[in-house]
Amino acid sequence: MSRSDFITEIYSKLFNAFGPQRWWPGETPFEVMVGAILTQNTNWGNVEKAIANLKLRGVLTPHAMRRLSHEDLAELIRPAGYFNIKANRLHHFLTYFVDTYGGDVTRMRDKSLATLREELLAVKGIGPETADSILLYALDQPSFVIDAYTHRVLSRHFLITEEADYTEMQETMTSALSDVIARGDRPEAIQYYNEYHALLVRVGKEFCKPKPQCENCPLNGVNWDSKK
To answer: What domain count does the chain have?
Structure first.
């Protein structure tokens, strides 16, 4: 079995078990961008509380949020944790987004994936995972997101090593998924990357925890070593 076929098998088992995930939760692309920054080092429930505060205050727009003082923004996003650090990160992102694109998502989408990723990674406080989340879920760019769940699932099923870094993991997934898409076996990249990552998060939360619960996991017994 090829690596692409194995990755397809993982997807099929997860999709059959969980169904479509309809990610990312957010009413607008900008809300998704903010959520991607706020979700660093916290759970999504806390992010939802912070976003609810921004909505209640009527400031969940690029220009309105940028006008907030650091103190006001930090207080509104307090439920997301590390609120002073995240307020700084949001202000850095908002400065970039408003100054470069006028706060207009459609203008961003006119740029290439490579250009946007380079720009996002140059924003202080935005790392690869956050940049790729913004690219995929807010800007409809085919950039596969790697996170702790992805690493845990892929390494436990021997598709990558425990020591694999972000770039290696992303290249492994992108290369294999590109082969699948090229064969016409799956939908276009944006939809496939979106659903695949969301399914990996789902199985990571429910079964592939730091202490794995393998017995009822849909991936139980599915290992790359045994497929080679």
So the answer is: 2
